[in-house]
Amino acid sequence: MPKITIAFVGLGGIASQAHLPAIKELGFNVDLCVDVDEYKVKSFIEKTGCKGYSDYREMLKNENPDVVLVATPNAFHARIAIDALENGAHVYIEKPMSVSSEEALKIVETMRSRDRFAVVGHNGRFDYRSSTAAKFIHRGNIGRIYYARGFILRQRGIPPAPTFIKRDLAKGGAVYDIASHAVDMLLYLSGYPKPVGVKGFVYRAFGERIEEFGMNYPQPPQPGMVSEVEDFGSAYISFENNITMYVEVSWASYVKENRMEYVILGDRGGIQIDNSGLSYMTSVEREFLIATPPSIPHVNSHKEAWRRFLTAIERND
């Protein structure tokens, strides 16, 4: 693969702990790094030797990156992605893609007009369970799909950082953070049916109780912290061909255990992905059968997402 110049815009935990190790394992490095926090820029320079900037616009003006990772607070995703695309770069956008449908459509419009690639960081697709389930479903093994559901539920998991809990930066809470993953996964597994309606609900129940309901990432909860965004969300989504989906997510809730679960139901079988693995349910000569893989290989989903993205750029497909 020819030399690809990679720029990271936003140098927080997801950039340093997930994206940087992923591209390094693939034999790439960060050439340009941008953050408003000078300490983070200095730290990245020490780790990677990248050329540092405090303003992404200055970086785009002076440099010509082939790929830009957008890992800033949610409020800035669309503007940076569009500017990078206009500058001729391919973009990898951390979820959520944007904070409005108008912004999302503008990103797609710019990507197409500039003939560039833009991907969103839903790395969960590249987990072994998810990719195996998708192959199985898309080959018709569960028949006609009629229902899907997705849960990502935490007991005490409010991320105690301004980039997650301050409305001007995050624009939303658990819905943008984890429901974006759940909805993407269900759409991916079910083959992207066309939505026709949605009814959703959000709740901010524990915003003043972060010391009790906060997680230790990206930092331990601090006294007096307050979350301005929702910590629970649910939605019913209806699609063409009489397909229904239900999504439920929480950063904090009085549930028995932390839970991740995706279920796709068809008239010839069902698929379930959860904390314990992957299961396939069907009937054989009228007997109910449950099948599971003998083992679940570990896949670095961030690495696999980057590998496919960079390969697509190289092949222009």
UniProtKB/TrEMBL annotation:
Highest taxon above the source species: Archaea
Membrane-spanning segments: none
Annotated PANTHER family: BCDNA.GH03377
UniProt keywords, alphabetically: Oxidoreductase
Domain Gfo/Idh/MocA-like oxidoreductase N-terminal: 4-122
Domain GFO/IDH/MocA-like oxidoreductase positions: 132-271
GO molecular function, one term: nucleotide binding
InterPro entries in the record: Gfo/Idh/MocA-like_OxRdtase_N, Gfo/Idh/MocA_oxidrdct_glycsds, GFO_IDH_MocA-like_dom, NAD(P)-bd_dom_sf
Protein name as catalogued: Gfo/Idh/MocA family oxidoreductase
SUPFAM superfamilies: Glyceraldehyde-3-phosphate dehydrogenase-like, C-terminal domain (SSF55347), NAD(P)-binding Rossmann-fold domains (SSF51735)
